[in-house]
Design brief:
Layout lengths: L2 H32 L7 E7 L3 H14 L7 E7 L2 H13 L6 E5 L21 H7 L2 H7 E6 L2 E6 L5 E2 L3 E5 L11 H14 L4 E4 L10 H9 L12 H12 L14 H7 L3 H6 L3 E6 L4 H6 L7 E5 L10 E2 L3 E5 L6 H10 L3 H10 L4 E2 L2 H7 L22 E2 L6 H12 L5 H19 L11
Helix pairs in contact: 2-13, 7-8, 15-16
Length: about 450
C-alpha cells in the first residue's frame, strides 16, 4: 500500500470513529432527556397552590445542609389549578419532560400517576417509625404493603408535611367563637343576625359561582354523615341529609337569603370575600390559605377570627383532611437527590423550615404540633393555628376517585337544588365510568355520558 492510500485509510477510519462518537453523544443526550432532565444538573420540582419562590427558600435551606448539591440547578413550578396541573403533568410524562419530584392529593386514592411513583425504601424512611412520628390518619393513607416471597413488606409511598381542614372565618364584632361549636349553634347565630339586620347575609356558602372553592365545602357536609369517606358512600339517606343541610344556607325563604346578592356579584365579577371585607356578610368558609385572599381585600385586621368548621354534635362524622404530598418520579435521573430531599422533609428541621415558610399548614409531624399551634398564620392578623384546631374531631381523607373531574362537575349540582338527587346520581355514574377508563384502562369504548 502506497503512502497516499495509507493516509486516506487513516483519515477514513478517523472520520468513522468521529461519526460513531457523535452518534453516541446524541444517543446519550436522548437518554438523559428520557430520564426527565433538561441538563445533568437540573432538578425539577412541581407543586400545587403554594408560592414557588417560598418553596425555593425551603430548597435553599436544604442545599445549606447538603453542600454536595450546592451547584445543582433546582427549578420549581407552582400551579394554582389542579386541573391545569393534572393536564400539564400528563403532557410532561408523555413528552419525557417530567419533574423529578411532584405532588399528589390525598383525596384521590388511586391516581392515574400512581405507576409513575417510586416507592420509598423502608430502610430510608421506616413505616414503623412513621407511625410513631405522624398523626395516625397519615399511616392509614400512605403506608402500603406487598408480598415479598412469603413475607409481607410495608413501605411508605409518599411523605406528607402539612395539612389543612376547613375553617369558618368570622367577624368578631358580631360573633363569638363559642357560638360556632356545632351546626345548630351556627344556625342560631344566623337567625339572631337576621332578626337584627334583615338585609344581611350572615354566612356565604352555597352557589359555586360566588363561593370561593365550593367543592370541598359540600364534601365536608357529606363527611358529617357517619361512615362517609368516599364518593361511593354518598347515597340514599346520607346524600339527602348532607345536601339538604348544605342547600339550607342558600334558600331565599330561610334566614340566610343567599341569593339576594347573587346576580350583583356575578355582574361585578366579585365573590363572597368582597362582601366579607365590606361587612355585608359575617362568615366565610375555606382552608387556612384563604387568609392571603382576605388580606388582599383589606379586611379589618382586629376583627378577624376563625374557628374549625362545626359538626352536628361532638363525635359525629369526620373532618375533611386535605394535603398534597411529595412523590419521587421513578424515571428521574436524580433519584439520589430526590430521596435526600424527601428525607430532609421528614425531619423536624426540614418540616420546621417548610412550615415556617408556609405558616397556614397544620403540622403532620406530632413533635411539631404543640409549638406550631401557637404560631400566627399571617403576620398581619391576630390568629394562630391553634385557633382552628379541634382535637376531638376525627380527620379523614375523602376519595373523590378523579379529583379534577369531581371538583369541576359537582359544582353544577350546587346551582340546581330542585333536582339535586337525580343530578348527583348521574354525576356519580359519570365519575365511576371515567375512573374505570382513566385509572384502570377498562371499558375504553363505553360512553360515560
Amino acid at each position: 500500500m502506497n503512502k497516499n492510500k495509507i493516509i486516506l485509510s487513516i483519515i477514513g477510519i478517523s472520520l468513522l470513529l468521529f461519526v460513531v462518537w457523535i452518534f453516541s453523544i446524541l444517543n446519550n443526550d436522548k437518554w438523559e432527556t428520557w430520564k426527565g432532565s433538561s441538563t445533568w444538573n437540573d432538578f425539577l420540582v412541581w407543586i400545587m397552590n403554594d408560592s414557588a419562590s417560598n418553596m425555593w427558600d425551603v430548597m435553599t435551606d436544604f442545599k445549606a445542609l447538603n453542600p454536595k448539591y450546592k451547584n445543582t440547578q433546582i427549578k420549581i413550578e407552582s400551579f394554582s389549578s389542579y386541573e391545569d396541573y393534572y393536564s400539564a403533568l400528563a403532557s410532561a410524562i408523555s413528552k419525557w419532560k417530567w419533574p423529578d419530584l411532584f405532588v399528589l392529593n390525598n383525596n384521590e386514592k388511586t391516581s392515574i400517576f400512581q405507576d409513575q411513583v417510586l416507592w420509598i425504601n423502608p430502610e430510608l424512611i421506616s413505616p414503623i417509625d412513621f407511625r410513631k412520628k405522624y398523626k395516625w390518619v397519615f399511616s392509614d393513607d400512605l403506608i402500603m404493603s406487598v408480598l415479598d416471597g412469603e413475607k409481607q413488606v410495608e413501605f411508605l409511598i409518599w411523605v406528607p408535611i402539612g395539612y389543612e381542614t376547613l375553617w369558618i372565618y368570622f367577624n368578631r364584632r358580631y360573633i363569638k367563637a363559642s357560638e360556632l361549636t356545632s351546626l345548630s349553634g351556627l344556625n342560631s347565630i344566623i337567625s339572631k343576625l337576621k332578626d337584627k339586620k334583615p338585609n344581611l347575609i350572615p354566612i356565604w356558602l352555597w352557589n359555586w359561582s360566588t363561593v370561593y372553592n365550593a367543592a370541598d365545602i359540600v364534601t365536608q357536609f357529606f363527611m358529617l354523615e357517619n361512615g362517609v369517606s368516599k364518593l361511593a358512600d354518598v347515597t340514599g339517606p346520607k346524600l339527602k341529609q348532607s345536601l339538604a343541610s348544605y342547600l339550607l344556607y342558600w334558600d331565599i325563604s330561610w334566614n340566610n337569603a343567599y341569593n339576594s346578592r347573587y346576580s350583583d356579584l356575578i355582574a361585578l365579577w366579585k365573590n363572597n370575600l368582597d362582601l366579607f371585607s365590606q361587612s355585608e356578610t359575617y362568615m366565610v368558609v375555606w382552608y387556612p390559605r384563604m387568609i392571603q385572599e382576605i388580606h388582599k381585600k383589606w379586611f379589618w385586621k382586629n376583627f378577624l377570627l376563625a374557628s374549625p368548621f362545626p359538626h352536628y354534635y361532638s363525635g359525629d362524622g369526620a373532618t375533611l383532611l386535605n394535603y398534597n404530598y411529595f412523590v419521587i418520579n421513578k424515571d428521574s435521573s436524580n433519584i439520589d437527590l430526590a430521596t435526600t430531599v424527601l428525607q430532609f422533609l421528614s425531619t423536624d428541621s426540614g418540616v420546621g423550615t417548610y412550615l415556617d415558610t408556609f405558616p397556614y399548614y397544620l403540622p403532620a409531624l406530632l413533635s411539631l404540633e404543640s409549638d406550631k399551634l401557637w404560631e400566627k398564620i399571617h403576620p398581619e392578623f391576630n390568629m394562630v393555628l391553634g385557633d382552628f384546631y379541634e382535637p376531638s374531631y376525627e380527620l379523614k381523607s375523602f376519595d373523590k376517585w378523579v379529583k379534577n373531574l369531581y371538583d369541576r362537575e359537582i359544582l353544577s349540582i350546587l346551582d340546581n337544588p330542585s333536582n339535586y338527587k337525580e343530578l348527583f346520581d348521574s354525576f356519580r355514574s359519570r365519575i365511576t365510568c371515567k375512573t374505570t377508563k382513566f385509572v384502570h384502562l377498562e371499558n375504553l369504548s363505553s360512553s360515560c355520558e
